[in-house]
Design brief:
The protein has about 180 residues and is mainly beta. It has one domain (about 1-165). The chain has one helix and 19 strands. The two termini are about 20 Å apart.
Length: about 180
């Protein structure tokens, strides 16, 4: 389990497997003219790539994206069997903020908070791949901005408490199943 400051991934390829990233706050940065805290859990930039498998990002905070922030051109993330919940952003992208490439496979993005795009914010420059049995939002609202969930993705009509146990369990280093 990682805590205190967000994980910064730059100029590299990094894997998170069977990991829980929780209790972090974003890194203070200036991006173009915007100064703020970015990427509460994981911040990906400068030609970096992240592969996240069987992992959870929960309980992190930032101004822009409480969970996973993908910053600049030539950076990206591929996530599979991934849960993003309980993260907070004071601006947009409570769970994920994608400025560039993002692929979502069998992920749960539900229960995050932000004034805009509480689950996922995607800029117009993103090469986005969805439609592989992801769950977005709750109460009939996907909580996404910049794209629409794919045909096989699910936007539950139920309350968050009926679809997701947002508590993290200690399972000897392995993330708890969240469904």
């Amino acid at each position: 389990m990682v805590a205190l400051a967000s994980i910064l991934v730059e100029y590299s390829r990094t894997r998170f497997v069977n990991s829980t990233i929780t209790g972090n706050s974003g890194s203070e940065k200036r991006i173009n003219t915007v100064l703020g805290r970015f990427g509460g859990g994981v911040y990906v930039s400068f030609q970096a790539g992240v592969l996240i498998l069987n992992s959870t990002i929960s309980g992190n905070s930032a101004d822009f994206d409480g969970g996973l922030y993908i910053s600049d051109e030539y950076s990206g993330a591929t996530v599979t069997h991934f849960t993003v919940t309980g993260n907070t952003a004071t601006s947009q992208g409570g769970g994920v903020f994608a400025g560039y490439n993002l692929e979502l496979n069998r992920t749960i993005l539900s229960g995050n908070s932000a004034p805009a795009a509480r689950e996922v914010y995607v800029s117009d420059r993103v090469d986005l791949k969805v439609g592989n049995f992801n769950i977005f939002g709750f109460n009939g609202s996907s909580g996404v901005e910049g794209f629409s969930p794919g045909i096989t993705d699910i936007v539950p009509s139920q309350a968050l408490s009926e679809i997701l146990d947002t508590g993290l369990a200690n399972n000897d280093g392995l993330p708890a199943p969240m469904l």
